[in-house]
Design goal:
The structure is a homodimer.
Chain A lengths: L13 H20 L6 H8 L3 H7 L3 H11 L1 H13 L3 H14 L6 H14 L1 H27 L9 H22 L3 H16 L4
Helix pairs in contact in A: 1-2, 1-4, 4-7, 5-6, 5-8, 6-10, 7-8, 7-9, 8-9, 9-10
The structure holds a DNA duplex (19 and 19 nucleotides).
DNA sequence: ACCTGAACACCGTTCAAGT
DNA sequence: ACCTGAACACCGTTCAAGT
C-alpha cells in the first residue's frame, strides 16, 4: 500500500557494518593482549560502541573469535588460487606456507591460533565450520597435486588426498609452534619446502 | 639443641601430596568440561579442599594447566626410551605417534591440548618450559635417526635434526586436528607412518 | 603450619529506559 | 530500530580468623 508507514529498516547495510566494526576492533585487541585477557569493555571502547550494542550483533564473546577465525578466508583463498596457476607445485606450496607463516609475523596474530583451536575444542559449531574449511582446502591442494601428476611434474608416489592431509597437518603444527617457539617464517617455509619435496618427489 | 621446640614442619611430604591431589582433580575436571569452563570451586570440590588451601599451592588457575602440561612427561619419555631400542626406526616412530594419539582417546584429553597451546602463547614461562621439552624430544629423535643411519637402516637423505623437527611439527599438527576433527588414532598413526617413510626413506 | 569460607574485585551478559 | 549504561550474576583470588 502506498504511503504506508515509517521505513521498517533505517539502513539495511548497518548490521553488516556494525559486525565488521566490532570484528576489526576485537581483532586488534585480541592480537595485542590475547582472547582471554581482552575484556568486552576494551573491545567496546575500541569499536566506540556500548556493551548493549555489541551483544545485539554477537551472542557471546566466543562468537567473536569464531567469526574472526572464519574470516581468515580471504588470504588463504588467494594463495590457493595462485597454487592452481603455479607451474611448479612445490614452489606454489612453499609460497602458500610462507604466506601463512608471515601473516602472523610482527603482530601477534600467531597467538590467536591457539585460542581458536582451544575454542573449537569446546564449540561444536566452530569445530564444524573449521572442519568444513579444512576439507575444502585439502581438496583443492589434492586437486593441484593431481594436476601436477598428470603433467608428470611429480611422481604419483602417494594418494594425492593423503599427501594433502599430511601437508596441511604439518602446516598447522608449524604455525602453532611458531606462536610458542618463535621460529622465523622464512626458516619454517624452508622446512616446509623440504617436507613437500620428500612427500611429493618432483621429477627434476 | 635437644628438646628444642615444636616440629617446624609437620609433614615434609604434604606439599607435594597436596599438589598431586589438586592436579589429579583438576585434570579430571578439565578433561570433562575444558579449562575455561571449569571453575576453581569445582576443582576444590573434586579435590576436597578449600579455595584458600588451593591457592596455597598454586598461584593461579593458569599455573594448574601449566603443571598438567609439563607432567605429561612420563608417557612420552617411556615411548622415547622404546624408540632407542627399536630395530626398525619407522616402526618405533609409528608406535610413538600412536601412543601420543591414543593417550587422548576416549577421554577428552585432546581438548586440553588446545588450551595448553593457547595458555603458552600468553605465558612466557610455560612457553619456555614447553620449548625446552620440545628441544629435548627433538634431540632424542634426531639421535635415533643418526643411529639408524649408521646402521644404514635408512638413507642419510636429510639432516637428522631437520627431519626430527618436521616429524614433531606434523605430530603436533595431527594431534591438534584430532581434537577438532575427530579422526581416529589408528588412521592418524597410519598417516604419520607414511610421512616418516617418505621423510626417512628406509632401505628395504 | 595449614586450613576454612566469607568477602572482594572483576568481567561477561542483560535489560529497563531513552531516541 | 537501535542504542546506552547501570545492574546482575558469576567466578578467580584474597584474607581475617580458626586449629
Amino acid at each position: 500500500m502506498p504511503g504506508d508507514s515509517m521505513p521498517r529498516i533505517a539502513d539495511p547495510a548497518l548490521p553488516e557494518r556494525r559486525r565488521a566494526q566490532i570484528l576489526e576492533a576485537a581483532r586488534a585487541c585480541f592480537q595485542e593482549h590475547g582472547f582471554r585477557q581482552t575484556t568486552i569493555e576494551e573491545v567496546c571502547a575500541q569499536a566506540r560502541i556500548s556493551p548493549g550494542a555489541l551483544y545485539r550483533y554477537f551472542a557471546a564473546k566466543a562468537d567473536i573469535v569464531a567469526a574472526i577465525a572464519l574470516d581468515a578466508r580471504s588470504d588463504a583463498e588467494a594463495a590457493l588460487d595462485r597454487l592452481n596457476g603455479a607451474a611448479q607445485l612445490i614452489d606454489g606450496l612453499t609460497e602458500l606456507a610462507h604466506a601463512f607463516f608471515a601473516a602472523c609475523d610482527n603482530n601477534r596474530e600467531a597467538a590467536l591460533i591457539g585460542d581458536v583451536w582451544a575454542e573449537a575444542a569446546h564449540d561444536p559449531l566452530l569445530a564444524k565450520a573449521l572442519s568444513e574449511r579444512a576439507k575444502t582446502t585439502t581438496a583443492r591442494i589434492a586437486a593441484a597435486i593431481n594436476h601436477a601428476q598428470r603433467d608428470s611434474e611429480i611422481y604419483p608416489a602417494l594418494a594425492s588426498a593423503e599427501a594433502a592431509e599430511i601437508l596441511m597437518a604439518a602446516l598447522d603444527g608449524m604455525a602453532l609452534r611458531r606462536a610458542i617457539f618463535w621460529e622465523g617464517p622464512a626458516e619454517l617455509a624452508r622446512r616446509f619446502r623440504l617436507l613437500a619435496l620428500h612427500i611429493l618427489k618432483p621429477k627434476r
